[in-house]
Design goal:
The protein is an alpha+beta fold and 676 residues long. Helix 9 crosses helix 10.
């Protein structure tokens, strides 16, 4: 390492000759010595003495030389120097902007202007440019599209596999999985979202023929591109014997045994290689215990397929049976492995019975595999049919058999009647769902929209069943109105005898927009606080934020302006509401039917309950007061004593009804509550 005095002398010579680039290089080479031997201000001054270029001087000022290590501000300085006009750049945080070309650098305002494909004249402060911009090298896919459009078109249309490799090299070698690849290609405009699936299938077929490319099982795991084709010789085997990552071990073993290199080994060599593979698989199996059930299952399947005996299949099955780990594993496996796992676990009738007993806990993919493999076993069929016949039939079973009943009914006499499954399917289409059940609900809703399925379904039902199916669907109110109407009309067109049973939608009586004096006063007070306190406070915040400098890159200013827009929107909305809704004491309300301004006693499956329906802004659950705009109130409005209405219930799969038992006038206590 050079002495600090020698370094200072070298920097002084650069100042004499005006060699700015040389001075930066000297600082980079001797950063450690300079950190301890010179102050930040001295370093900055030494650099400034080497140039009179105002742009370079602005770069120096923009780099904080008090940062440690010194290499950090120097790297930032060199990156700024590289952003010359004409340089090709892109922003990884805004890939949809496409390729950018640096147009100009403004030393006075310290801004860099870039023309992106879809965003012209975008300005960055120096700090923002350093954080957001990446220089595109000549081999980058963006640069190829810009400089050689013909080659780009050939790559994406004729050789999608090679195109994918170029994208991976450009945006994330070693870190790009299938999901990230899809996101990048769509954001950059390489492939349209609707065309992605077809494009990826072509690319994947080409990549699988390339021995240098390893496509992972999971979408989130990285696609590997090797520099050279692996020969799987002694050196590879020796290196593999020391591998410790379970996922890498599994992928390597599966790839190795699929090659001709393993199959062509001499018996002694093959036995030696198999021993090494078995040892690494046993190691990875232990590593996956209690950590990753899906990985454990995949390793167990590989050990079984290779007919290795340590550990034995029974030991691995026992672990997967514990705490139903095989169910958790199946939810995170690709289709082929799910089928293999079900076959691996279902060794006898008792095992099949255990799987069928838990069928409601499996995801849709696993249920399909179970049905496919167990369809020939009467005991398994009976257990599945029993689950399907229950009042709370698993959503996955309902979805599968609703869509494929005709395929199974001839060979599966244990199945419940089709009409029972269809009613369960309608119930599944109702209510708020989540997770796997939400996925099944969406499948069911798409199924009901298919004209061909409706025709097959209605034709498969007896006349009485067809009517029951039609009326049950008409009674369902969880579907959006236009979709519900379309399906009802489509059913009646397929089976014309149903037309006379179409129930016209009951036109609800419209009520004046009212609320109690108490709630109106509270809303008005909230409005006055908004315009007299919150909005002036926001104006002061905006003025204060302006003092932080450049408004386009000023986060405090942007946040304050966003808040201002939100407050102005809220002010307009509240003003409209205060003009539309009137304060009222509901003295004109009658008890002939449910309306705002009455107390209602209802009978529910859980017992008798009492609610008071007031205006739009009224709510006090402790007193049983509910707004006239709640789902419960809306379902009751217009009903008379003795009539039924649907009882709302979040997440409930079946429709539950309640009865209006009594309609009462408002009590003195409620009228007192309504006062200001």
């Amino acid at each position: 390492m050079a002495e600090i005095s020698d370094i200072k002398e070298a920097l002084a010579k650069c100042a004499e000759t005006g060699d700015f680039a040389q001075a930066v290089g000297i600082m980079r080479e001797n950063a450690a010595a300079l950190e301890s031997g010179m102050k930040a201000s001295e370093l900055k001054d030494a650099l400034k003495k080497t140039t009179t270029d105002r742009l370079f001087l602005s770069f120096i000022d923009a780099c904080n030389f008090s940062l440690k290590p010194l290499a950090s501000p120097l790297v930032r300085l060199e990156r700024l120097m590289a952003l010359r006009p004409g340089t090709l750049v892109f922003s990884e945080k805004s890939l949809e902007w496409g390729l950018g070309i640096v147009k100009r650098l403004d030393y006075f305002y310290r801004k860099i202007t870039v023309d992106f494909t879809s965003k012209r004249g975008h300005q960055f402060t120096y700090d923002a440019a350093l954080d957001l911009l990446t220089i595109a090298p000549p081999e980058h896919i963006f640069a190829i599209r810009h400089a050689d459009p013909a080659r780009y078109e050939t790559l994406i249309k004729d050789t999608p596999g090679e195109f994918v490799k170029e994208v991976i090299k450009s945006f994330g070698a070693g870190s790009m999985g299938i999901q990230k690849l899809e996101d990048v290609c769509i954001k950059c405009g390489f492939v349209k979202k609707d065309n992605w699936k077809a494009f990826w299938e072509k690319a994947k077929a080409a990549l699988r023929g390339d021995k240098r490319v390893v496509i992972p099982v999971r979408k989130t795991e990285p696609i590997t591109i090797r520099e050279e084709v692996e020969d799987y010789g002694d050196m590879w085997l020796s290196a593999f014997a020391h591998e410790t990552d379970p996922k890498t071990i599994l992928a390597a073993v599966r790839e190795y045994i699929a090659t001709s290199a393993y199959a062509k080994l001499e018996p002694d060599k093959k036995a030696e290689a198999t021993e090494i593979l078995a040892g690494r698989l046993a190691f990875s199996l232990v590593a996956a215990r209690q950590v990753d059930d899906a990985l454990y299952a995949r390793i167990a399947l590989t050990i079984t397929a290779m007919k290795l005996q340590n550990p034995g299949p029974e030991e691995m099955r026992a672990y997967l049976w514990e705490r139903k780990r095989f169910i958790k594993a199946s939810a995170n496996l690709p289709s082929r492995d799910v089928n293999d796992l079900i076959a691996f676990m279902a060794t006898d009738d008792a095992a099949r019975a255990k799987i069928c007993a838990a069928i409601g806990e499996f995801n849709y993919q696993a249920v399909q595999a179970i049905i496919s493999q167990f369809a020939t076993f009467p005991e398994a069929r009976a257990a599945i049919a029993k689950e399907l016949s229950s009042a709370q039939a698993p959503a996955t079973l309902v979805t599968l058999f609703a869509g494929s009943y005709n395929r199974f009914k001839a060979d599966w006499p244990e199945l419940p009647p089709f009409i029972a499954i269809l009613k369960s399917a309608i119930a599944l289409g109702e209510g708020r769902q989540s997770g796997e059940v939400l996925r099944m609900q969406n499948i069911i809703r798409r199924l009901f929209m298919q004209k061909e399925w409706l025709e097959q379904t209605l034709n498969a039902l007896e006349p009485a069943e067809r009517m029951a199916f039609f009326e049950r669907f008409q009674a369902s109110i969880a579907w959006d109105a236009s979709t519900h109407h379309t399906i009802v009309v489509r059913m009646s067109n397929i089976a014309p005898e149903l037309k006379k049973h179409i129930v016209k939608a009951e036109k609800k009586r419209e009520y004046a927009r009212l609320t109690s004096p108490r709630s109106y006063a509270a809303k008005k007070a909230e409005y006055l606080k908004l315009i007299n306190v919150d909005m002036p406070k926001n104006v002061r915040r905006i003025e204060f934020a302006k003092g932080f400098g450049d408004l386009s890159e000023n986060a405090e200013y942007q946040y304050a302006k966003d808040e201002q827009r939100a407050l102005m929107y809220k002010q307009g909305e509240m003003q409209s509401e205060l003009e539309a809704v009137k304060a009222d004491e509901f003295k004109d309300a009658t008890t002939e039917e449910v309306m705002p301004g009455v107390t209602v006693v209802i009978e529910t499956p859980d017992g008798e309950k009492t609610y008071t329906i007031l205006g739009e802004w009224d709510n006090d659950l402790e007193r049983g007061i509910i707004s006239s705009k709640t789902r419960l109130a809306l379902n009751m409005l217009g009903k008379k004593a003795g009539e039924n209405f649907e009882l709302p219930g979040a997440g409930r799969s079946e429709v539950v009804f309640a009865k209006i038992r009594e309609i009462r006038p408002l009590s003195d206590e409620i009228r007192e509550w309504m006062k200001v």
